[in-house]
Design a protein that fits this description.
single chain, 423 residues, mainly beta, 4-stranded antiparallel sheet, 27 strands
């Protein structure tokens, strides 16, 4: 494949960020149980009005009914490398959480980075940028370079010199998908990379809002109205589906617009917002206030009916989301408001047809005001339990001032803590 368009040096804009430092450490898995909840089933916890409620529960001496177990490790490389909700704004001095050989550790990656994009355990490779964002072209878009670190060979390569706005691994772990600003067309290109400057342009008018289907044969992206001044042409607003009939390594793909979703005003967006795949319902779940359902059969997108017909704009808006296909649950971080409201990790229970939000709640067994410090890292057992950084367990309160507070595991199946991973 031919190299991409030429890239010229651009002026770097310095952005002041607080320096966050932490000490490396290892967390033993499953040393002691966390709080065991006797909360009622999810369907009995429907929240009324726009102010959520939670029940303060005392610590229980009853042992958990199941044992948290990490995903099977892959020989020689970590099974997880994450900075959780901080992505991509995490510098190398901050370190990462890694899971390898059954041990969860805080480690320093042996390469310098200022943006951390994505890790794939199938290839053991980490995508990152060596520089913080700077502006590009007439659109003043935030861009950087793109590097790949290989844990198995302990080597790093630059894959693109500049103009990268976001990068994420395809499910196969061998191809990187990136949103790249093209200064010649002044639009965002969606590209597929298999090595340094070795890429194919999938779409010449796209955005950073893309995600792969877990099956690895389809890719969706949303061109939203908010992006008109950010490299998206008004002629290509909407939601698009890219199919790879010969597999991701094939030389052909098909692109079709499956919805006009994106042509309406959306409330806000985050750097890593992306459509989530609800495969059984043949739909996408897109974060907004709180989120939209985008059917892939061409029927109109909609906001699910809310509990008690609440105003969706008053509900917590999730980001950095995960989707549990087994449970029809969306899991996401929620930012704290100006008055300290919301914050924490929230779970939204949807009906089987996704037409209703049956319940939504913030995880944790302590009073509501204390749960806003919990932040999502990643799946622990995909679709069943999540790894979070916990800040409100009395036994770990001494770590509140640190970036990496003691992690814990929350069960989506049982709706309570099943392990705290002690340092």
């Amino acid at each position: 494949m031919k190299p991409y368009f030429s890239i010229k040096p651009l002026t770097i804009i310095l952005v002041a960020l607080p320096t966050l430092l932490s000490t490396c450490g290892t967390f033993e898995v499953g040393i002691e149980p966390f709080l065991t909840s006797t909360s009622p089933p999810v369907q009995d916890q429907i929240v009324q009005e726009s102010t959520p409620t939670e029940t303060a529960l005392p610590p229980s001496d009853i042992p958990p009914t199941q044992t948290a177990s990490p995903p099977p490790p892959i020989s020689g490389v970590p099974n997880l490398v994450s900075v959780g909700h901080l992505a991509p704004f995490a510098s190398s001095e901050m370190g990462v959480l890694t899971l390898q050989d059954g041990q969860l550790s805080h480690e320093i990656v042996p390469v310098y980075y200022e943006l951390l994009w994505d890790y794939n355990p199938l290839s053991g490779r980490l995508a990152y940028s060596s520089e913080f964002f700077h502006t590009s072209g007439q659109k003043n878009l935030s861009v950087s370079d793109l590097w790949v670190y290989d844990y198995s060979s302990d080597t790093a390569q630059k894959w693109l010199d500049d103009n990268v706005m976001r990068a994420a691994w395809a499910p196969d772990g061998n191809h990187l998908t990136a949103a790249v600003y093209n200064p010649e067309s002044e639009q965002i290109n969606l590209v597929l990379l298999s090595g340094p400057d070795d890429l194919e342009i999938i779409s010449e008018c796209a955005s950073t809002q893309f995600s792969w289907a877990p099956t690895g044969d389809k890719l969706a992206y949303v061109n939203a109205l908010d992006w008109l001044n950010l490299g998206v042409d008004e002629t290509c607003l909407g939601t698009y589906l890219v199919s790879f009939p010969g597999g991701i390594s094939g030389e052909e793909w098909d692109i079709s617009q499956v919805s006009d979703f994106g042509t309406q005003d959306l409330s806000a967006w985050q750097v890593l917002d992306q459509p989530l795949w609800a495969l059984e319902q043949n739909a996408l779940v897109y974060p907004d206030s709180p989120f939209w359902i985008v059917p892939l059969d061409g029927s109109p997108a909609f906001i699910p009916q809310t509990p008690g017909d609440q105003d969706p704009m008053n509900m917590p808006r999730p980001y950095g989301n995960l989707w549990s296909q087994q449970l029809n649950q969306l899991v996401g971080n929620v930012e704290s408001g100006p008055g300290g409201g919301f914050g924490g990790v929230w779970i939204y229970q949807l009906s089987n047809d996704l037409s209703q939000i049956e319940d939504y709640y913030r995880i944790g067994d302590t009073p509501q005001s204390e749960n806003s410090n919990i932040t999502l890292v990643d799946w622990w057992a995909p679709g069943e339990s999540i790894l979070v950084i916990n800040g409100d367990n009395p036994d770990t309160s001494q770590y509140l001032s640190e970036v990496w507070r003691v992690p814990a595991v929350w069960s989506l199946l049982e709706n309570h803590w099943i392990d705290v991973l002690n340092q």
